[in-house]
Amino acid sequence: MFDMMKMMGKMKEVQARIKEAQDNLVNISANGESGGGMVQATVNGKRQLMSLTIDPSLIKSEDKGILQDLIIAAVNKASDEAEILAKESLKKSTEGLLPNIPGMDLGSLMGG
């Protein structure tokens, strides 16, 4: 028979684990690079840019457009990787607590 109190307790545990996983996203670090490593970006699990490294040879006024494109590419690669790592982290945090429902996207629970 369905035990509503047990289910409610389980949901509170799931909510606590999801909040903990969300809070820990700042500890996830993902890197992206472009231009053969001439531009490197690091993004955390909340998809915030944490560091940016630019090869000094790129810092010339005539290369401004190329540099901007390389920065965008590196940040986007790091951001995409951070999203994947964040979803994996959330999935591990709630493993065994939630039923495996096809099509259920836990990414929406973490604001992703």
UniProtKB/TrEMBL annotation:
Transmembrane segments: none annotated. One of its GO terms (molecular function) is DNA binding. Its main location: cytoplasm. InterPro entries: YbaB-like_sf, YbaB/EbfC. The keyword Amino-acid biosynthesis does not apply. The keyword Cell membrane does not apply. Residues 4-31 form a coiled coil. Keywords: Coiled coil, Cytoplasm, DNA-binding. Pfam families: YbaB_DNA_bd (PF02575). One of its GO terms (cellular component) is cytosol. It is found in: Cytoplasm, Nucleoid. Homodimer. Belongs to the YbaB/EbfC family. Binds to DNA and alters its conformation. May be involved in regulation of gene expression, nucleoid organization and DNA protection. This is Nucleoid-associated protein SanaruYs_01480. It comes from Chryseotalea sanaruensis. The lineage of its organism: Bacteria, Pseudomonadati, Bacteroidota, Cytophagia, Cytophagales.
